[in-house]
Amino acid sequence: MDKTSTSGDAVPADPAFPNRELIVQLVHTFYADVRSDRVLGPTFDAVIEDRWGPHLARMVEFWSTVMLGTRSFKGNVFGKHMAVAGVTPEHFTRWLTYWFLRTSELCRPRAAAVLQKAALGIAKMLHRGYFGATANFEEAVLEARKAARVRVRTIPSISPVHS
Fold first, then answer.
1. What is the number of alpha carbons within 13 Å of residue 40 lying toward its C-beta?
2. Does the predicted model carry a pTM greater than 0.85?
3. Among 79, 90, 122, 156, which is disulfide-ready with 117 (CB 3.0 to 4.6 Å)?
4. What is the rounded CA–CA span in Å between residue 103 and residue 114?
């Protein structure tokens, strides 16, 4: 199976690497956290409203495209997110915290690291869109790592996945 990362580099087949079943579990677990969060929940609910089922299915397709190269997701991620009002740096810290927690919990270390690197690239791109290129994204990442109690050595560098 040809698996690709968001950077376009081929990822070799590896039983420790995410598969569709893992992505489904990860997306549903992660978004349960998001929905119950006092900051993220209201923001997501305001946009998604009662369409959580379709949104979760879409997120499975998004992460399948990112991690497995399925090309089953089509959409304007940046544009959709830039239309959401009221987003603060705290939203990014909380989102990354849950992602770090769930990927570390559900995945083997190598798979967790690859999923975290992809999420960091996406978050950095969106953070830059909201707050500008000079915003301190690294601070949000460090806060999320601390909150998730994820060892820094298990998280890949925060270099952008998207140039």
1. 19
2. no
3. 156
4. 9
